[in-house]
Amino acid sequence: MSVPAGQHTVRRHNLALVLGEVAGPEPLSRAGVAARTGLTRGTVSSLVEELIAAGLVTELAAARGGPGRPASPLRLDPRGPAGLGLEVGVDTVGACVVDLGGTVRVQRTAPSDHREDAPDAALGRLAALAADVVAEAGLPIAGATVALPGVVGPDGVLERAPNLPRWVDVAVGAALSTQLRGLPVRAGNEADLAALAERWAGGPADAVVVSGGIGVGAGILLDGALFAGAGGRAGEIGHVVVEPDGRTCHCGGRGCLETVAGLEALTGPDAVRAAGRALGIALTGAVHLLDVPAVVLGGGYPGVGPLLLDAVRAELAARAFSRAGVEVRYSALGADAALRGAATTVVQDVLADPGAVIGAQGQVRKERSASVSSPGTQ
Amino acid sequence: MSVPAGQHTVRRHNLALVLGEVAGPEPLSRAGVAARTGLTRGTVSSLVEELIAAGLVTELAAARGGPGRPASPLRLDPRGPAGLGLEVGVDTVGACVVDLGGTVRVQRTAPSDHREDAPDAALGRLAALAADVVAEAGLPIAGATVALPGVVGPDGVLERAPNLPRWVDVAVGAALSTQLRGLPVRAGNEADLAALAERWAGGPADAVVVSGGIGVGAGILLDGALFAGAGGRAGEIGHVVVEPDGRTCHCGGRGCLETVAGLEALTGPDAVRAAGRALGIALTGAVHLLDVPAVVLGGGYPGVGPLLLDAVRAELAARAFSRAGVEVRYSALGADAALRGAATTVVQDVLADPGAVIGAQGQVRKERSASVSSPGTQ
Fold first, then answer.
1. Out of B241, B289, B320, closest to residue A290 by CB
2. What ipTM, to 2 d.p.?
3. Res. A372 pLDDT band, cuts 50 70 90
4. Topology (CATH) of A7-76
């Protein structure tokens, strides 16, 4: 039996509805939002005022221009709550701030080799970089997501990263949250976050998005959303076997895709052809198991050039029988797709449920006024 | 905004609720069903009468026995609408009838080699076998599902079957429906239906269920349901590449799992070890891409013996790094799992929505009475 939605739930739902319209491609006034949502103008105005007060929406000056242009267009407030993206690479750390409108406001990457090191020093460097980037952006930060080059379990713990042998079962999000004064920090696999970035940039709804770096991973998109598998670890294409008697992999296996197609293996045209063939073999398995119609090669792969892409296409054409004409293309995003994807997950969460942000702001105000009115309790 | 459910919708929902309780492991009386569902005794009695009239439920004589036993236990009517399972194998056809309580009432398999033949003759043989089996069972048939040894698209068309080269884009369900006087016939991949049978027999909720025959396929279970992939063709593990320079496969590829681990390749212990290794390599890919914790080997594999199972386990233990301790076991079901799974899908549909069956029966009654009252219109 369904229970009638409470006033509070309805208002929270409607806040998201209105913010979604403001975030759309077409500039809309309050009247335009009312027309598109079916809400009354009075309701829309009340909701818009709340979104403006929370710093999520701004109302531009009335345009005097051409016919049909809205009088006072609303837009996402670029000074509103922003997303902090963080990344632990194999030999880098990165941080960026993406504002509510999706614009990258500050982005920095620094060398930091983690192949031999334990996590503590690296996480300290990343937290310091994050603090710098946040200070430079000068925006309120709604939360952070950290992209990690390994297997992230359903609880957000980095379970294993083959190229980072000392990082085993590390609660990276919790550790960074402590260093960043309690800012909520979630963790995700870097290839998964790069795949989401690909989708948000207009990529295909159903695809295997391969992220080529020192390690190789993939994010699997089905119906526009990340496919998690049974436990959130899906998409570890770098450890699909492509040469059963091949080289030992850092994961402990043998002949994994990563041993042939990791960026550090791509020295010269023969290696590139071999990598393309190996990618095609592994992707044949992915197409047969997942029934996906498209493959996007991202991370460092687009920089390798057409030889790699041609080899992958030829291999898939010769081997994948269950789907004719699997589309294979390079990503148009750079190697920072995972970092930007990480920041954008935070922004997407704000847009999906602005009521949560407004509720948190209210809580902060209450706590502040309580501490002002009764300092003795501190 | 949610709309209140209409009386009709509520009654249909409640019919399924009551039938679900009757189908449960514990024998329940009308009072027992009322207690478990929260419906009034009057409502339950009215729904039970409707289910009895439709031939779905039967009420046993009041038990005089021990304390706590229900007075007049309800159970699924074994004379009620049954499911017809059909199968086109590579060199067999099969048909079986499973009653509402899940018991196989009649089952027959006949040799019928389809490797060289076009579909027409084979489908004629299968339809004749189906008619025999239905006549022998003497039960009303709610519908049929046909298991096919190839790629079945989202519209139920057999798109390709590597071992049946002349079966390309065949609407098998529609063809059989015509031959079976309009009985609804759906089509599914044989490995998918075998995986569902495995689940209904108490198997794991998250698993790759491999079906070993002349061809090799898999059904992927996630959260207890079949994983379809982007277009319904997921699970074609037989064409995952395990020997990049291996033998040419019927699919046109090279070194597919099926070329090494299809049952016809298993001649002698060396071949069994090679097949186990190949299965382990392909399953390593599946575990890494899908993050599944369990593998069930079914079809003809359990008959091969422990050598195969040990080889698969050893290979997975050495190669699958993202999940420790993937469970690998043989299926306890026989090689007819797909056939029984096909019949059981029909029974499951009846149990999930008995209102649809009752509605169809009402429609038949209306048509019959119309034809009796105005014979001139025929």
1. B289
2. 0.89
3. very low
4. Arc Repressor Mutant, subunit A (1.10.10)
